[in-house]
Write a structure and sequence with these properties.
The chain is an all-beta fold and 150 residues long. Helices cover 0% and strands 69% of the residues. It contains no helices and 10 strands. It has strands spanning 2-14, 28-41, 44-52, 58-66, 69-75, 79-85, 89-95, 100-112, 119-129, 132-145. Strands 1-2-3-4-5-6-7-8-9-10 form a 10-stranded antiparallel β-barrel. It is globular, with a radius of gyration of 16 Å. The model has no long low-confidence stretch (mean pLDDT 88).
């Protein structure tokens, strides 16, 4: 287990925010920093960290990368498991505590150079719910070794 510093940058365009005229809103962006751990076993990389919010909600996040496939799992009040393969679509599950929903994740672009010395995972993707485009997203997970991660 290697202690790491993690920076996650998200850009999200939620199509539910469109108004009646059909104007497309600007994507919402955020950048957050975390400390966590990375495990490297051959070509498989696993990054684990916790996200704590002001309202007391806590999400445990795992990012796993292996052979051109990335999986981002978030566990908390809402549980999601999103699978990414460049140029492909994957059916994924979101459990909101009341029921499970099937999502289709369409990975437009994905690149990763993460290794034992750190690096970045970049993913551009869309999410469909019941065949309807719901979100257009991009995420960048940057990782670097740290002696102070806990």
């Amino acid at each position: 287990k290697l202690p790491v510093e993690i920076m996650v940058t998200n850009k999200r365009l939620d199509y539910r925010d469109m108004n009646i005229t059909g104007d497309i809103p600007e994507p919402r962006g955020s950048t957050d920093s975390y400390t966590g751990y990375m495990v490297v076993k051959g070509t498989r990389i696993s990054i684990d960290y916790s996200e704590d919010y002001d309202d007391g909600e806590r999400l445990d996040t795992s990012v796993m990368i292996n052979d051109g496939v990335a999986l981002i799992s978030r566990r908390g009040d809402i549980n999601t498991n999103l699978v990414f393969r460049a140029g492909q679509s994957c059916d994924c599950i979101c459990d909101n505590g009341y029921r499970q929903m099937s999502l289709r994740v369409n990975t437009k672009k994905m690149s990763s150079d993460i290794g034992p010395l750190g690096g970045k995972l970049k993913i551009d993707y869309t999410i469909e719910i019941m065949g309807n485009l719901a979100e257009k997203n991009s995420i960048c997970v940057s990782v670097c070794p740290s002696d102070s991660a806990s």
